[in-house]
Amino acid sequence: MPDTRKQTPGASPRPGVLVSNLGTPDAPTPAALRRYLAEFLADPAVVNLPRLLWLPLLHSLILPFRPKRSAAAYARIWTREGSPLLVHSRAIAAGLEREINRLSGKQIPVALGMRYGNPSLPEALLELAAAGVTRIVVLPLYPQYARATVGSTLHRLKQLSEPTLDCIEGYAGNPAYIQALASQVREFWQQHGRGEKLLISFHGIPKQVALAGDPYAQQCLHTAGLLAAELGLSNQQWQLTYQSRFGPAAWLQPYTQVQLQELAAAGLKTVDVVCPGFAADCLETLEEIALRYAESYREAGGRELRYIPALNDRPEHIRALAELVMARLPG
What we know:
Rossmann fold
């Protein structure tokens, strides 16, 4: 990997931006999922077990079977343009480049690199190096910091190259981000009416990881509280929940799916769900929440679960992200 710190003596640092997201398989097929999951689940930041124990289990018990199930889930949401996560992440990166160039009056390159899969972080670094970038502002699209997401991304980037890296390590309470979320929810309610309760659902992490000091749970609570306050909701009108549990260990609770079943059993017919931790719509929002959890909610006696889309490349979202990046750019 080229060293992007090299520059003409006396020249000013050339800034660039690296936007990163979790990643996606190249296709909704078992073979593509096997490649993707092999990289994703081998990361110690994702599965914190001894390698000598975990890697044989991964290759003997998980990778032979899980890719087929995961491919079927991806096939439910795959679009003509490809994976929704990649489509939306590209749109965010393109919108961000236009906005920061407008605000700065300069041509500042923005590259997209996924932590797992393609386009990869090495590809993004090569793209920025080819543009002469010597100082990189890293924007992981995770508003709430977790070691498994932001921490893993920055660790990998430091392994790959030695540019000057300035990483935005979360923006859980950023006012422009909160206002963008609130605007999205209000617009949805104006168009569809308000449900009987709003679930603010975040991707979960193992409970033991949170107890060991990961700040993620506190940051999720911070975001949810600010969003509820911005919307003027009482404590009875909203609840924070966690989704996407993987494996047998206890994760952060309450679980979104369990809470939905309890609300249906209590007689609530219409529930809205917003997922502020996902900057771009993906498998966890479009398949897990909008399809699978909606089906189980109806089976439990509810009438309608309405998923409120992620911010994606909404103008308010792009402006919020540009504000974060501009604060890190020289001059």
